[in-house]
Amino acid sequence: MSMASLCGSGGTARTSQCMAYLGAIVTLLFACDGEGAWRCYQEAMAVSVFACSEEGTAAQMLMDAYRSEDDQVVRKAVASCQTLKFLDNKVARLAMRLPQGTTKQVAASLGEAAGGGYAGTLAGGGGKGGDPGGPYFKGNVLDYGTKGGGGGAADTRAAQEEEEELL
């Protein structure tokens, strides 16, 4: 049963749902379960309230950071994300201790869960149009304020399909 079906339609329930999804993603990343984190992220992004929320942006930032396969990028993303600090106290503490284990191993399991082509695409050179790279999806799905807008699981799939066509 998905988390979306467990939460009601009230405003507080929506906020709790978003925080629960982000907390689950953080916990799975802390446990070095990239595949589980990816599946939870995909389920969460299918919920429009989460996809448009600050928690959704934070989750996408974490996925992108792990995608880079660089511990420093993950640490920087965690340090710059205020939303992580508003999670449940224990989960927020876990988030501040990310990354755990080998970032490359987690990125590889993210790639496997996403059907390949996900892990390592930023490390090898970056975004669309000859960009040197950055913390955004190839195809400009997520921007962190530097490129065009983005967000949502549909945009993520479109960007991955576009990347596969280029390869």
Sequence-ordered SSE layout with sheet pairings:
Blueprint: H1 3-6, H2 11-30, H3 34-45, H4 48-51, H5 54-67, H6 71-80, H7 89-96, H8 103-113, H9 153-166
Task: Give a structural overview.
The chain is built from nine helices and no strands. It has helices spanning 3-6, 11-30, 34-45, 48-51, 54-67, 71-80, 89-96, 103-113, 153-166. 58% of the residues lie in helices and 0% in strands. With 167 residues, it is an all-alpha fold. It has one domain. The relative contact order is 0.13. Residues 119-151 have low confidence and may be disordered. InterPro entries: TPR-like_helical_dom_sf. Residues 148-167 are annotated as: Disordered.
Number of domains: 1
Main pleated sheet: none
Overall 3D geometry? globular
- Output the structural class: mainly alpha
Distance between the termini: 36 Å
Share of residues in helices: 55-70%
SSE pattern, N- to C-terminal: HHHHHHHHH
Mean pLDDT comes to: 75
List the total number of helices.
9
InterPro entries: TPR-like_helical_dom_sf
Region (Disordered): 148-167
